[in-house]
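task queued by scheduler; priority normal; single chain, no ligands, no partner chains; default sampling; output format set to structure tokens
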Amino acid sequence: MIPARWPREDALQERLLHVHPRTGALRDARIGDLAAILRPGDLLVVNEAATMPGSLRGLAPDETPIEVRLLGELQTGAFRAVLFDGADWRTPTEHRAPPPLLPGGSKIDFGQLSATVERVAPLSARLVELRFDRSGTALWSAFYRTGRPVQYSHTDGPLELWHVQVAYASRPWAAEMPSAGRPLRWELLLALRDRGVQLASVTHAAGLSATGDAALDAALPLAERFEVPAGTAQAVARTRETQGRVVAVGTSAVRALEGAAALNGGALTACAGETDLLLGPGYRRRVADGLLTGVHEKGGSHYALLRAFASDEVLARASAWAEERGYLSHEFGDSWLILG
């Protein structure tokens, strides 16, 4: 797939491939056509997490430059994070050198703030828990002053934080933008509402797409924080009663909905916590009937989740169709709607 290298001006004209999971039918459309494709009584569930300024550049105790990419805040107030070497986003993650080993108690200096390694994960020495030297408003103010958005080498230039926010972003929980919702502009959301499509939200701490560490990448996605509010649980119940379809916007929204249901015996109720649920072929979905997602390459953790919505044969045909027609991939790319 060809990666989209920069945000495009007219998101509503971006391409949308409608994939029918049962018949395998494929239809080219545009994001702006979504209001005509969905039906009155359907429910669209978005992930309203804002993207953190989660790339922090600092110095290890021996003054070796390193990059820290935050995954999210834990209930203890510490932050889970992944360590990288001192190169920047221009170097592909798989080509970056290993960062220095930082055992528990090591201090990282970020200039305007510092952090101490509280725990190193058994999975990889690069996966750590950090305790910063401040908390609350003071900590988040320092993040926004010194941090940058996480980005990868396929982009054309340095990204600003506004490049990687969805229109309805709320709390800064996401390590990377919940990018399936990126092209959903307010005029489209209003058109959907006027058509009778209901809107609801969850908050899910969308994690990193890749780290360049084989053990870590094989384990993605890691356990991630989520919250399903009462209004969303009630909206799903109403949609079920009226035979509408629940369409999740993005793999992170799916993980929040299905993870919450899994914690409650299969029923969706208002709740918050962490989910380590991995969806794939054979998974019996309890909440989401369809999925609006970006264009993902085979072999990635996001693509694996699509296999809970359609067969390998249908997905392979859709991938070949999208590639032949020049659909763009990655966070600024085109979209698929997997919905019967």
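post-processing summary
- Residues 55-146 form a domain with the Thrombin, subunit H fold (CATH 2.40.10).
- The chain has eight helices and 19 strands.
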